[in-house]
Structure formats: structure tokens, C-alpha cells
Amino acid sequence: SAMREERIKKTKTVCTYCGVGCSFDVWTKGRKILKVQPQPESPANGISTCVKGKFGWDYVNSPERITKPLVRKGGRFIEVEWDEALKTVSDKLKDIKKQHGSDAIGVISSSKATNEESYLMQKLARQVIGTNNVDNCSRYCQSPATVGLFRTVGYGGDAGSFSDIASAGLVITIGSNTAESHPVLASKIKRAQKLHGQRLIVADLRKHEMAERADLFIHPKAGSDLVWLQAVTKYIIDQGWADEGFIKKRVNGFDDYVKSLDKFTLDYAEKVTGLSEDILKKIAEEIHRAHSVVICWAMGVTQQKGGSDTSTAISNLLLATGNYGRAGAGAYPLRGHNNVQGCSDFGSMPNKLPGYQDVSDDAARKRFEKAWDCVIPAEAGLNNHEMVEAIHDGHLKALFLQGEDMGIVDSNINHVQSAYEKLDFFVVQDIFLTKTAQFADVVFPASPSLEKEGTFTNTERRFQRLYQVLEPLGDSKPDWQIIQLLAQYLGADWSYQHPSEIMAEAANLTPMFSGVRYDRLEGYNSLQWPVEKDGKDYPLLYEESFPFDDGKARFFIVDWTEPTGTSGEYDLHVNNGRLLEHFHEGNLTYKSEGIKRKTPHAFIEVSPELAKKRGIKDGSTVRLVSPYGACKGRVVVTDRVHGNELYIPMNDNGETAINQLTSSEVDKDTDTPAYKDTAVRMEVLEVE
Ligand code: SF4
């Protein structure tokens, strides 16, 4: 078999990094990855990939992989066999459940893991443990976008496909560093600009690459997007440019909505956002002139105290101008992780069963209870944010965390890490001994995407299959197998032989996925939900109706929530986001030698004005202090940032880790941390 292992082979997989969902063939010899080769039939990306998809795979063979279960004994991790680790965890969880009840246990799923694994995690929580305390990392990013869409159009996903973004007359991006965060999508927009004169408006604090390429780059004050969106919509309606035919036929609540816009005059918006009336009118005119409008948004919108409301305002604007249900139009929240869409879709949410069926919906809950022979609580469980607070106040005793370096990526990490120390029992399942895993009592070694089968769902709601490229390293196992083993040790009778059986069960219980079958996803075939029993899928949503009882969308009234902003000694605003080369805290990408050499650590962007005022330059070292913590880093002076605004790539888990600074403030509707609303003071440590 050594001979066979050394044969060169080619296997189709799906990128493990961002929500674009590039698929490609991976050529391997033994465990050596020879090359990544995208195919013309790759539905999301064709023959393109970015640097991460192409070169970001060294981590799979990293000597830092954990390959044996670890159990903490006398303050140290000891490698043990699976049986001992599983017995330790199941005994302890049973004990905690007996003493404190099911709701003393929380479960967090990974948006890097597959749909099938998200399904099993929430099934473990609901059926085996008996709690709705299950959530995933969209709580840190996209939950507000999903809420904004639920309120107005009914589905928590992108309105169409990348082809719709490419064929739009006008694309507006808000709070999205598209060229670095969703590189292959950004290339499609760049091509559309060149090929058919697509117009581009970019709203951001930072003059990044797409801002440079925009026909109009606007720089509203931090946290004020809702105000310019509402003012532009009001101006459009006042000019008689609203799509009255569409509204009359397809949307409820227009009159009350129009009234709610009264205060959002151009004059008011100019005061709040700093954008001139001329600019606001120009935006309205661009929207009016375009044959179709797509709005893409990301964390700059959602990670604010009013993130859900701003997402709602975006959707309202599209409804008012008839930009739903046709090619080249609609709302496109750009999902971050490869499977952050699917992780929520498959029920790792405290208030939703798979397919966004409410746990409070008796009929839906009963269907699952019957299939699983259990009782599911009718009340929502705790979300990630509430779990941290519940640990602090003593209600949550145990946490089972899958593939999420939450102690680095959650906001206010000093507060989060001190919660871990209070847990009675903490189990982490990951491929590396992350910062978070170091707090655990037991660590289960998982296998990354290349070592397993399953499906991911990209930002276009597109299901794609990944095939196993490599054998699991050492004693590591695919997450679905570990979750199943744990369920069995806890007394459940699960017996899935392959992820396709998990999907079959999920599809059977979830109308939205009823036609999702592995044989329909062979090779490069894909399906975009909702998928009907006969396999009909929906690349474009809302062509005929919106998924509400009367088939109509709804205007949803929202108001502005003022950001906390800067004040007193905390006089500088810190923004954060991605770098092209790295992903999030960098647990994967820092293990690629080439990428690491090129971009060895995060830095702090400072505007030329501020640098001059503080007497610092490129390469100076500064310390940033917020009321919640401090971080240290090297200065890069650049006009990408402006005035008293700083920018730190979020890709650092050491001394420049941004979440040492962020607060525990959250979006009021979803508890998503207001990462983008952070104020600090700056101390100069070394000019150079
Ligand atoms: Fe494609 Fe995103 Fe992966 Fe880059 S990181 S290859 S854009 S899926």
C-alpha cells in the first residue's frame, strides 16, 4: 500500500477559506500537495482562485497538528487513546447534566466544518444533551445581515448568484474590503467594470483597492451607514423614483415606511454622516439611472451596535427601487468563512432548527422530536455572547467548542478567556492546540477539510461536495465521526456510515433542503437552496414571491443607533478587517511558509496627518490602550486611513491581536459584537 499511496492522484475539493466557495482539483502524491488546479466547470470560480486557495494548504501537514486526544492531568496535557478521552468527556457531561440540568451545557459549531457536521452538533445539543444552547461564529459576523433579510424578504441568504453581481448595472459595497476578503468575487466586479461599464460605489472608512477603483468612493463617519442609506432612499422616493408598480404588487407597509423616513433629510444626513448633500444626491441618481442594483455588504455594517438595522435599511432601499427578484439585482451579504452560511442553515443556532425553522414553531419542533425520539425545549437557547456571560454568572458549567479560536476571535478576549477559567469542564475539538484549546480540559484532534467528505455552502447558497484528498493524520478524525462517537458514549444510537446519510436525514426533515442529495452533487455539480424534492434549485430568489404567507415582502421600519465612538482620552477610532494573505486569527495561514514570509505579522495603519501629529513614522512601535485591554504593534503610515482612524488587520493571535481592545458591546438585535466601534489611546513606545 506504500506504493499505492505514492501514486499521483487528483481529487476535487472546495476551498476551506472564504465564502466565495472556490472549488478545484488538488493533485497529491502521498501526503504531498503538488498543485491546486481550478476547472472551468467550477461553478463559483471557474479557473480563478486567490493566493490562499492556491498556496494556503501547508497547515494540513504541519508538525503542530494534534494527532492524539489530549486530556489535562495535573495541569498538563497528556496524550491518550480515543476511548479514554471520550469516556472522560461523556462521564463529565453526564455528571454536569445530572447536577445542573441540560442547560448548564453549551455547544458551539465551527463554520469551517461541513453542513453535515453542523447538523450533528445541533442534534447532539438538542437530542442527546437536551438543550438549545448551540450557536456558531456567524454570531461574530453575519447574524445581523441575516436578521435584516428575514425582516424584509424572508430568506437569510444572498438574493442571487455571482453572475447577478457581475451583470448588475450598479454595485454598491458597504463596509466590505472585497478585494482582500472575497478576492475572486472582487475580480468579477473588476471585469464587469471593464467589460460592460458596470458602475461601482464603495462606502468604507478605508481607501482600499476597491475604493480606488470605484466610480464613487464615499467615506461616511464610522457607524453612520444607516443614516445615509435612509436619506438616499427618502430622496429617491421624494423624486418619484421609487418603483411603485413593484411596491404595490409585491411589498407591504410602504406608507408607514415612508413616514418613518421623515427625519432622514439630506440636511440631517449631512450632519450625521459628514457626506455632503451633493454626494447623497449623486448616490441616489446613480441608483435611479442603473438598470439594476446589487448591494454587497460585510462586517463594516454588521459589527456595529445597529448592525441588524443597517442591514434592514439596505434591504428596504432595494425593495423601494424594485431591485429584487430579477437578474442583476438584490442583497448580497458577503459571508466570511467557507461554510458560515451552511453552519447556520443546518441549525447550529439557539433559536432555529435546520432550515431556519423556529424552535418555537410547534409543528417543526414536533417533526424533529418524532424523528429523534426526544423532547426539544420550545424556548431559544443561549447564543455565543450569552454563553460567555452565563459562564461568568455561574449558570453555564460546560462548553463543547468545535473548531473556533473563540478566545482570540470573540470581542473583549480578556473577558472571554477569564470565563474559560471559570468553567467546570471545557472540551475543544480542533486541528491545532489553539490559544483557546490551551484552556481546555480535553482536546479532540479533528481532521481538516482535505481529510474528509461532506458539503459546504458558499455565500451564493450553493451546496458543493468535497471529496477526501488525504487520510486523517495520526489518530485525528473527521468532526462528524468524533461528534457521533461522543453521542454514542452519551447513550445515543447514531450509526451514520457516511456524511451522505446525515444529509439524507437533514433533507428529510427540512423543507428548504428536501431535494439535496449527494448524487445531485457529484463532481462539480452544485445546488443553490431552496432545493425542491425533484431537485429544482434557485440560483435567483424571489422571482415570483417572497417566502411569507401572502408571498409579499415587507418594509421594516428602523432607526439609527448612535455608535459609542471616541471620547475623552480614548480619542482614536480603530477599525479592523482582513488581509489578502491571511485568514482570521491566522491559525491556518501562518503555517504556510511562503505566506508567512511575505506577511509575518499584523500592523497598525496610521494616517499621515496623525503620524505627523504624534511624531511617528513607518516602523515605529506603538501601544494602543482601550478600557478593555491593550495591544502593541508596528506602525504603517498610509493614506488608506484618514484622520484619527486606525486600522489593524485581524490576522494576529499574539501581541497585535485586535480583540484585546474591543468591548463587549453588541448589535442590539443579535448580540453580534460591535467590533468596529472601538476607541483607544495611543502611546508611542519607539519612534524607530
Ligand atoms: Fe476562493 Fe476565497 Fe478560497 Fe480565495 S479564499 S480561493 S477567493 S474561496
Automatic annotation (TrEMBL):
EC number from the UniProt entry: 1.17.1.9
Molecular function as annotated in GO: formate dehydrogenase (NAD+) activity
Alphabetized UniProt keyword annotations: 2Fe-2S, 4Fe-4S, Iron, Iron-sulfur, Metal-binding, Molybdenum, Oxidoreductase, Repeat
Domain of life: Bacteria
The 4Fe-4S Mo/W bis-MGD-type domain, residue ranges: 8-64
Keyword hit for Coiled coil: no
Tagged with keyword Aminoacyl-tRNA synthetase: no
Cofactor: [4Fe-4S] cluster; [2Fe-2S] cluster; Mo-bis(molybdopterin guanine dinucleotide)
Family indicated by similarity: In the C-terminal section; belongs to the prokaryotic molybdopterin-containing oxidoreductase family.
Protein name per Swiss-Prot or TrEMBL: Formate dehydrogenase subunit alpha
Organism: Scopulibacillus cellulosilyticus
Gene that produces this protein: fdhF
Full-length numbering of the shown residues: 251 to 938 of 987
